[in-house]
Amino acid sequence: MKDLKTVQNFNYGLEKIFPEADDFLPILGTDYVEYYVGNAKQAAHFYKTALGFQSLAYAGLETGLRDRTSYVVVQDKIKLVFTTPMPDGRESEVAKHISKHGDGVRTIALWVDDARKAWEETTRRRADSYFEPYEESDNDGTVVRSAIRTYGDTIHVFVERKNYNGVFLPQFEKWNSHYNPTSCGLKYIDHMVGNVGWGEMNVWAKFYAETMGFANLITFDDKDISTQYTALMSKVMTNGNGRIKFPINEPAEGIKKSQVEEFLDFYNGPGCQHIAVATDDIVFTVSEMNKRGIEFLYVPGTYYDTVADRVGEIAEDLELLKKHGIMVDRDDEGYLLQIFTKPLTDRPTLFFEIIQRKGAQSFGKGNFQALFESIEAEQAKRGTL
After folding, report:
1. pTM (predicted TM-score)
2. Percentage of the residues of the chain whose pLDDT score is greater than 70
3. Among 154, 162, 166, 263, which residue's CB has the most CB atoms within a 10 Å radius?
4. Nearest of 283, 289, 296, 311 to residue 367 by alpha carbon
């Protein structure tokens, strides 16, 4: 890519500016991610306890909602919303989503300056509208939101909150809780990965390019992402300021069933496979999560035999990384450290990636072999390989 620039942003660290992206929205960052779940209160408690999130906001019967209940948790720049249906919403989209997919991501909300313009620009480029722009107001001001459909049942909500000073959104109140475990050091969402069906990767890459003005940051084919048994392909799409990155994965032919095929089977269609969250100290973050019961994929000890030759000098103690199963990779601009949790739900679908970037802007291509072998080992235990 030509004329690529790197700038410093207070909220997101080093950013890329992608001149190829037609950044007509533009997107300021991830506003929130909403899960539809069977029990919002318990899901919020789990994310607080195990991943270090804090109580932020609540909406439900006490705030005038009859069909659903939502809890919002926060950790630095990351806001997660957990929503579950109430009896008045037993036939709602929330209930139907849970019945079809299990607990999973429904909404990837994007923070914009102008939610009306974002909706107009994307629908003019043939995005399928989910809802038209509308205002929500309370004593703290006004929020404007609009939404479009994306892969599967996932939607993007455009959120304009420049005239709002409330805790989260209208109809939400501050969630006061005496139980707020300490942070695990998570800072912001680095990227979110969508799994789509056979032959659909280019369709959705084109959607993000033409409908939302994104650029194709990098492409991985089945030679890049494969093992002896399975393979997949991926295109990473990014907006102009680089704050939003959406890798889009599709299955590729292999001897056995790939992780993408397993996801599609258990999620009953395309959806968000994992959320990558950034940290400034991955050893601290992983240590804390381990103490709190989070399980990570096992990385064979032999992986570390060649790390020094492949990656070169790094600031971290390699033995400490090996102890925690943290992988390392390098590109032309630096290196990164990453690790992946096991699925956070009963279905083998959604999981988290923990990533620390030390200059690198890539996605750990050098770790794909070890990572996929670890995933295949888990698939074999589940009988889904």
Report:
1. 0.91
2. 87
3. 263
4. 311
